[in-house]
Amino acid sequence: MQEIKPLLVFAHLLQQGTMQATAAILGITPSAVSQHISRLEQQYQVKLINRSTRRLVPTEVGRVLGEYCHKLLQDVNDTFTALENAKTEAQGDIHIALASGLANNRAFIATLQQLIEQYPAIQPHLHFSDDLQDLQQGKIDIAIRGGEHALDDPNIVAHHLISTQWQILATTDYLAKHPIKTPTDLLTQTWLAYQPIHFLMQKGKDNFVLHIEHPIYCSQLLAQQKLLQQGIGLGLVLETDFQQERMRQEIQVVLPEWRIMGGVELYAVTPHRVQSAKVSVVLNLLKENFTHYY
């Protein structure tokens, strides 16, 4: 039987881009990675990668072979996942990546509570980050993500949770000091955001382009929400996050008759087509709770 390990190493090398990164993922030395690739090239008399650049670039033959190797790697991962599924009980560590703002989300909190109470053999590890994490390179089992780049990675499997909308929020105290009657008033306000704001707002047949080039930069959504609650300025928050009971009394929607166009689709994404028992449990809980609450 032909050995497939060099093919799997080659698939990882194309994903990681360097010998060192591939070696770290596989738990071997960079020299061992190089030997696997050289063995393939020598055995089949082909050149698979160009080694003249800092980041290894596949040749045309390497690119074509890489597509097959990637499928092979997926099949191997799915096979081991199927073996995990054969267990009678969902158990073990599960790593979940999610945006910081979801720490206040009712559906996620309910999911976490049910997971702890109903499945004590599953140990959740929560990785909060507002950057999209690479599911192919880390230990992440499930990532909850939304926005225009949520599904950019062609290798992930997406499970739709909800559709939601952006809303402009501010405290009642802030609005008392800075009245906002029309969309034009928004341009002179203090804004909290993690990037420049550019949205189309609509009320009936009327349109307004909201563009804020220099908001107060907040690297975390949860920090933005906390500062917003302190009356520092305006912020864009998903309507699902605004529905938290403790936020309702002190925060209100600004210009609720105007709708921000372009909704946000929220997904739970996984790196594998076949799900382990523990991943299936968490996915089902997420779907049930997001459907229930929203």
From TrEMBL:
Pfam families (alphabetical)? HTH_1, LysR_substrate
Give any GO molecular function from the UniProt entry: DNA-binding transcription factor activity
UniProt cross-references to SUPFAM superfamilies, sorted A to Z: Periplasmic binding protein-like II (SSF53850), Winged helix' DNA-binding domain (SSF46785)
Q: Does Nucleus count among this protein's keywords? A: no
Query: Which GO biological-process labels does this protein carry?
Result: DNA-templated transcription
Keyword DNA-binding tagged: yes
Give the similarity note. Answer: Belongs to the LysR transcriptional regulatory family.
Question: Under what name is this protein listed?
Answer: LysR family transcriptional regulator
